Amino acid sequence: LPMSYYQEDFFKEYLKMMTNIVVLSLLICISLAFWMVSMTASTYYGTLRPISPWRWLFSVLVPLAIVTQGFKKKSLDHSGALGGLVVGFILTVANYSFFTALFVFFVTSSKLTKWKKDMKKQIDSEYKEGGQRNWVQVFCNGGVPTELAILYMIENGPGEIPIDFSRQYTASWMCLSLLGALACSAGDTWASEIGTVMSKSKPRLITTWEKVPVGTNGGITLVGLFSSLLGGMVVGAAYFIAQLLFVSDLDISAPQWPIIVFGAAAGFLGSIVDSYLGATMQYSGFDKNICMVVNHQTKDSKHISGKPILDNNAVNLFSSVVIALVLPGVAWGFWPRG
């Protein structure tokens, strides 16, 4: 006999519940397996600090839930979801402050990408519904933080530490470098997503200060610059809040509030570096057929600025590398000592 509507609905809900139980059981098994490997390595080498099974579980379960939601809402495609899972897992197992900064960057960037999407479709020739970031975009924004998180675990082991150059110079440098890369990406995204639709004035090319069409690589506005500073500050504030929640010895360490200022500076300066690279090494032309700025040469496009050396993903990657390498050294000179 055919199932009734209610029976079919009940069966679907039951199947969904059982699937969730199976997935959760697998995640627990994976977490325990990672923990056993961690304990074995700790016993063998004698110097490594073992990671608790709860940390392993959190590092697998939470990034999986986030990328699943991102995929459902079209913020990530299939490859982007897999790449995001790798990045999220490594940053989470390394340091919860890393995860918090990454989470805030991803959520705010995804929301802003969808914000005023109808206007953005009219000015962005490569606009995708929901953003739909692929693995290349994920690793160009998250590759530098991922590598730094791995180096951090090699240097310090997984866990949260206060940023204090006088006590833990190398680990503190890596933390700020990672935060700088994330804040740089956030600043660039906020500037692009807010500045293009909120600025009342036309952007000016950062190299010549000439007015250029909206969407030109290297074009800046006051609204965009302020947005980049705000985006970096939000990521820095997220990192700072995580420090307050998860770090135990803040009372004997250097003050952590400069993290917020550092994030703001990384967002602002990262946007400047990104704009300069975009203006010089990324092609921008105005296509008369579609009346939009394009990032590649066409037979109907008129050159505005830049040479076709890098694409947008490469510009984002190089910008985050520059900020990650330079800004922590500058911050060291101004950072308060504990």
What report would you give on this structure?
- By secondary structure, the protein is mostly helical.
- The chain has one domain (96-333).
- The protein has ten helices and five strands, in the order H-H-H-H-H-H-H-E-E-H-H-E-E-E-H.
- The strands form two sheets. It has a three-stranded antiparallel sheet, with no helix packed on it. The chain has a two-stranded antiparallel sheet with strand order 1-2.
- The protein is globular.
User: Radius of gyration from the CA trace?
Assistant: 22 Å
Mean pLDDT comes to 83
Tally of individual helices? 10
What characterizes the major β-sheet?
Answer: 3 strands, antiparallel
Query: N-to-C terminal Cα separation, in Å?
Result: 75 Å
SSE run: HHHHHHHEEHHEEEH
Helix content: 55-70%
User: How many structural domains are formed by the residues?
Assistant: 1
